């Protein structure tokens, strides 16, 4: 190791120097007698051996904050559905990042589930098309119930659309018009009420209601 080489050289040099001082205590030392010119001295040692104070990593690393935007809405919903995994299939056969069923895909013009599963761009378009279709089906209910309190939950457009993604617009209509008495639950225990509450207050104004919305590349 380089650090040992330096020690091995300097130790005898220091001893000789001290002996010289002892032998000639009154003499004036001539620095030129102790020159290191021509010697190969390497004082470079690695950081892991040296006592170096490293700079702390910056704590202000940029991370996107989606908040209550539409992007925040769809990513939060995707995380709940599949943890954002485009290529997953659950135990009931629901597909992709947003967990679509084959029948729902047919409604928005997708007839090849396998092609859908391996195409992230198509999945994003499918999410938007399905939300547009649901918004059209539920347009009157959104207008009627938005801002009201039902079963302890403040009703918002984004909550309605999230619940429609879970259970279909028909189940959402039943929940709203029964004032919470008819609360659909899926096979994993997620309910319309739960989605209404969890996804409340996002900005989904970008979604245009469209009865005939289709997912096209």
List keywords for this structure.
mainly alpha, globular, 217 residues, 9 helices
State the total count of DSSP E strands: 2
Strand content: under 5%
Order of helices and strands: HHHHHHEEHHH
How many H/I helical runs? Answer: 9
**Rg measurement, Å:** 36 Å
Q: How far do the termini sit from each other?
A: 62 Å
Largest sheet descriptor: 2 strands, antiparallel
**Secondary-structure-derived class:** mainly alpha
- Mean pLDDT, to the nearest integer, reads 83
Q: What kind of assembly state do the chains in view correspond to?
A: single chain
Proportion of helical residues: 40-55%
Q: Trace the largest sheet across and list its strands.
A: 1-2
Low-confidence stretches: 45-59
Shape: globular
Structure overview:
With 217 residues, the protein is mainly alpha-helical. It has a domain at 70-198. It has 9 helices and 2 strands; from the N terminus they run ααααααββααα. The chain has helices at 2-23, 70-82, 102-107, 113-117, 120-137, 139-145, 157-167, 169-177, 192-198, and strands spanning 149-150, 153-154. The protein has a two-stranded antiparallel sheet with strand order 1-2. α7 (157-167) packs across α8. The protein is globular, with a radius of gyration of 36 Å. The two termini are 62 Å apart. Mean pLDDT is 83; it is low at 45-59.
């Amino acid at each position: 190791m380089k650090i040992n080489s330096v020690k091995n050289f300097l130790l005898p040099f220091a001893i000789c120097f001290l002996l010289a001082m002892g032998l000639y205590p009154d003499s004036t030392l001539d620095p030129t007698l102790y020159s290191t010119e021509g010697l190969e001295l390497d004082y470079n040692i690695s950081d892991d051996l040296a006592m170096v104070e490293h700079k702390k990593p910056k704590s202000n690393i940029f991370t996107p904050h989606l908040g209550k935007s539409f992007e925040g809405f769809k990513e939060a919903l995707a995380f709940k559905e599949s943890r954002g995994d485009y290529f997953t299939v659950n135990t009931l056969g629901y597909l992709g990042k947003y967990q679509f069923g084959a029948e729902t895909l047919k409604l928005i013009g997708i007839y090849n589930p396998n092609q859908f599963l391996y195409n992230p761009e198509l999945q994003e378009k499918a999410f938007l098309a399905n939300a547009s279709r649901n918004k059209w089906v539920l347009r009157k209910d959104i207008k009627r119930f938005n801002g009201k309190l039902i079963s302890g939950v403040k009703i918002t457009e984004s909550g309605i659309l999230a619940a429609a993604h879970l259970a279909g617009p028909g189940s959402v209509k039943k929940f709203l018009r029964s004032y919470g008495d008819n609360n659909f639950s899926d096979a994993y225990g997620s309910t319309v009420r739960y989605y209404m509450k969890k996804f409340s207050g996002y900005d989904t104004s970008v979604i245009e209601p469209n009865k005939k919305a289709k997912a096209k590349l």
